[in-house]
Amino acid sequence: MLNYLFTSKKINECEIPNRLVVTAMVTNYCNQDGTATEQYIAYHEEKAKGGWGLIITEDYAISPHAMGYEKIAGLWNDSQIESHKKLTETIHKYDSKVFCQIYHAGRQACSAVNGGVQPVAPSAIPCPWNREIPHELTISEIAQITEDFGDCALRAKQAGFDGVEIHAGHGYLIAEFMSSYVNKRTDKYGGCLDNRLRFVKEVYENVRQKVGSNFPVTIRFSADEGVPGGRDISESRILAKQFEEWGLDALHVSNGVYGSQNKGGTVAPMYVPHAWTVDFAAEIKRLVDIPVFTVNRINEPLMAESILEMGKADFIGMGRGSLADPALPNKAKNGEFSDIRYCIGCLQGCTGALLAGSTLTCLVNPSLGKEWEIDYTRVSEPKTVVVVGGGPSGLEAARIAAVKGHKVSLFEQKGFLGGQFVSAAYPPNKGELATYTAWIINELDKLQVDIHLNTKVTKELVQKINPDNIIVATGGVPMIPPIKGIDKSHVFAAEDVLLGNVPTGDRVVIAGGGEVGTETAAHLALQEKQVTVVEMFPTLMKELDSVSRFNLKKIINEYEVKQYTETKVVEILDDGVEVENSQGRTVLQADTVVLALGYKPNNTLASELKSVFDNVVVVGGALKTSNALHAIREGFEVGISIK
Ligand code: SF4
Predict the structure, then answer these.
(1) Are the C-beta atoms of 345 and 270 separated by less than 8 Å?
(2) Is 344 in the pocket of ligand 1 (CB under 6 A)?
(3) Which of 250, 333, 375, 537 has its CA 20 to 30 A from that of 574?
């Protein structure tokens, strides 16, 4: 069935065993001095074990002031080589090859992570994300950075990497020189395309001269920068031809810069179609004879296979797919597609966590970044474990406890598993959430977790089982504030509306403009209903990351959802909702009112059980209002800690 994915292909003299590539992703797992940690090595080892043909590491800083994040890898001096050698030796125990991506973040670096040093760029135009005015590089500084790139590549070779990838995309320093979006210079490095390519050419030549002709040197660049004045495919076609002519061994066709991130840019969220940039790679592939990589929102091996079959690319990059399931290639090879834990494009654990200054995590894979410290050995004396609640937190706790060999029973009051994650898959563009729920239910089935649906747990029931461990994961319940008329028969909870448990009329007012309220608005607007959202805060979706907010806002604007912010619901009437804001009071006509006013912990049972048992642990939304990322992680931590 998979005739293309698992064939080998050469890049220069390096034979890559299959076409699945882990693309570079910042981890923030290294030491501040750029050396590799045990955590960093174990994270990569998991992918090598999982069968990826090629692993491209995160961006290695070529100098201590080139970093965009505090704890990324670096090879700017010889003393760093040894720790990275351990990484390549570890990966080479398996079949995978490993390339080192080398970069300078340019104006997308920031002084906060570069020892207070001002970012640099071809011209003094700030990056819209960090807003620091960069220092315009002088000719002699450019020459030094060029040498630094070459030296860094040589150290990568000495550390045992199979190749290097020069990062000339995503708006980093080399990309800045190549694009008139940022490069406004009037010297030999600015102006016409030939001048704008001078820096990347010099970097490549320096690298090639230091690593030799047989060592793979590839380049990553953005085919379309997605910003006004940025480079588009017409100029990128020329770049591709030039790169091939100079001697680069493969082209990694990516997209975007930081400034286009909201539109999908460098890392696309679930709102952006799958494989949305693949046709850029296909265009480039028509022009060159060297291998071409494609990337971005490809998370399905069958989709990857179809891209190869159509001849649109030679290698398929799946950065986030490898975070969600490091064993994706091996599972795909064995045809175990329903065993793959798919990336859902949420960005919460990866980009979201990094932008918040944390380390790389993944919402659906709570063991990410913990590979070095997790012990999956089955226990010799299994415990009986009762998990109450079949939402994301309870499911993950049950799964990992069963993986450790414990005898697990899970009780859920409703007739289905997945909790709020189930209804969360209903709004537009969120269907992929269901892949996670389906995956974990399948896992629990394989692990023979004893599941009881439609079962209300009481302390008597638990006393009868008398388990060694009790995990309460009863989640949250909707907040119902004391608003006059809130108990009327046309007032429904958002979850019931999304699941289709209740009928809605044609004119709907949604009380609450957070993530759930706004997504419910989008869901109903797509059903041609007239929808109004009322929110007390100045902005809708204030808890969402900027990328998701931008994309969801686009949908509700397109479908003409009326939006009232800094507005309070005063009373729910039979035919509308009375609201109040700085303009005074008004009545919004409605035949249906939806409540999306947040959740509070559902912890009554937890308190009851704690009064009788001393082995009760409460996790997820039952403990405090949280999101799926934290709920799943907490479930994992509690489940794995049972001895
Ligand atoms: Fe994918 Fe979300 Fe995991 Fe990021 S956090 S890898 S987007 S599932």
Answers:
(1) yes
(2) yes
(3) 537
